[in-house]
Amino acid sequence: MITDAKRLLEFIPEQRWFGHKGNALVGIELVDEVILSDGPPALVIAVVAVNFEGEVVYYQLPLLIDGDGAGRDATQEPDRLRLIGELMAHGESVKGNSGVFHFGGPGLDPMAPPPGTGSVRVVGAEQSNTSVVLDEQVILKFFRRLDVGPNPDLELNRLLTHEGFEHVPAQVGEITYEGTIDAEEVQIDLAIAQHFLADGTDAWENVLGRLQTFYGEVDPADASEDRRFLTEERSGDLLESIASLGEAIASMHIALARDESAPDLAPDAMTQEDVAELKERIEGALSGADTVADLSAAIERRLEALAGIEDAGAKTRVHGDLHLGQVMTTPRGWMILDFEGEPLRSLEERRTKQSPLKDVAGMLRSFNYAAVAALFEIDEPGSDRWGELEPWATCWENLARERFLTAYLTRAHEGRFLPQDRDALIGLLSAFEIEKALYELVYEQGHRPKWVRIPEHGIRKALEDR
């Protein structure tokens, strides 16, 4: 055993990927470790159990450990990680203290130079995981917080790659662990490797930039009756791109709804019990949302209408946390990333089959966020300029929703997973938008109070739409 768990008590809470800042640490235990290179310093992958009062959370630590036992994050010296590309390319399995670490490379050519031969660099913008780019061709994402069982990011990307789905970067490698925890045999997914989108552009930043340009073209002399026409004229390319995003998301849902998939992945009918659970989740979230208490009665009426839905469509595996920050534009079209699901939810929740409308609602909420976030870049709420631009932001959001939904529904019809009745479809979509906006509201109250107005607006809009 080379990893000193006691030394990690000070190291782990300081890391940006540590998701339990502020929680009192009781202790850290080493679950297993594998020495990939003796060094010095030794290159080690460790799986540790972080103990809080009443909770145990598993984390993965790629470490460099000196002879005196002092350890540091291996990503501080990314060149040392090139060995992992070689292990994946050759499908190596390496024994740890008690279990086995498997390095797979189903999409890598074992006869070609392994990824990382030329260059290795760390992606610095991530919060909850850590990604390393090998030769500007492969991106290797280390899952930092671990769960026993399949990680949906690896699970679903593996499936979609196998299906030949063109809107995800192909999965080419993986790292998994097999061992024993508390006398039970477990498998834990540690990392996923995919094609690196060197020519990709972050959709969130792209849309914000184009919206700021659009807002900059607004003239006080523009007639309000021409607003829709001018918005379409000035942001037509962006709206067309959003329509093609709707087609790509529908295509993803069709691929995830294939009947011939394994039971964990094949679609099931969405039952009255599923609809009731959605209603209960929203009511639970609403109980802690004081700022929209005046809307409680309207939300409850909307939820009561769900009880009359006879055909709620199918529930399938879904992305689970879909928004503009999870997609990229490339010369080959849209690419969908990060299938881990909402980070605050458990693995069981993130792997639960749900209506694909959950993803649709997430993207519709993102259009609302983009429209208002771009306004924040220009002026403060309540200013003259804000008041002048806000109707244009609303107009753009409405058009983006229309274009996305029209394209999505036209394509999704082929998958037979949506409710056939229009009122049922709109009612469920509205409920998922309300659920997402309540989730956002809790986050904004704790992190960005000025942005609370965005999910509040989203809830009001969802109640208006029929």
What does this structure look like?
The chain contains 13 helices and 17 strands. A hairpin with a 2-residue loop joins strand 2 and strand 3. It is 39% helix and 22% strand. The strands form four sheets. It has a seven-stranded antiparallel sheet. Strands 1, 2, 3, 4 and 10 form a five-stranded antiparallel sheet that branches. Strands 13-16-17 form a three-stranded antiparallel sheet. The mean pLDDT is 93. It is of the alpha+beta class and 466 residues long.
Unreliable stretches: none
Helix-and-strand structural type: alpha+beta
Strand content: 15-25%
Largest sheet: 7 strands, antiparallel
Number of helices: 13
Series of H and E elements: HEEEEHEEEEEEHEEEHHHEHHEEEHHHHH
Give the averaged pLDDT, no decimals.
93
**Oligomer class:** single chain
Backbone shape: globular
Main features:
single chain, 466 residues, alpha+beta, seven-stranded antiparallel beta sheet, five-stranded antiparallel beta sheet, 13 helices, 17 strands, globular
SSE blueprint:
Blueprint: H1 8-11, E1 25-37, E2 42-52, E3 55-65, E4 71-73, H2 82-89, E5 93-95, E6 100-104, E7 120-123, E8 129-134, E9 138-143, E10 145-146, H3 152-162, E11 171-181, E12 184-195, E13 201-202, H4 203-216, H5 227-234, H6 236-256, E14 268-269, H7 272-286, H8 296-305, E15 314-315, E16 327-330, E17 333-336, H9 347-350, H10 357-376, H11 384-412, H12 422-447, H13 453-464
Antiparallel strand pairs: 1-2, 2-3, 3-4, 3-10, 5-6, 6-11, 7-8, 8-9, 9-12, 11-12, 13-16, 14-15, 16-17
Helix pairs in contact: 4-10, 5-11, 6-11, 7-12, 8-12, 10-11, 10-12, 12-13
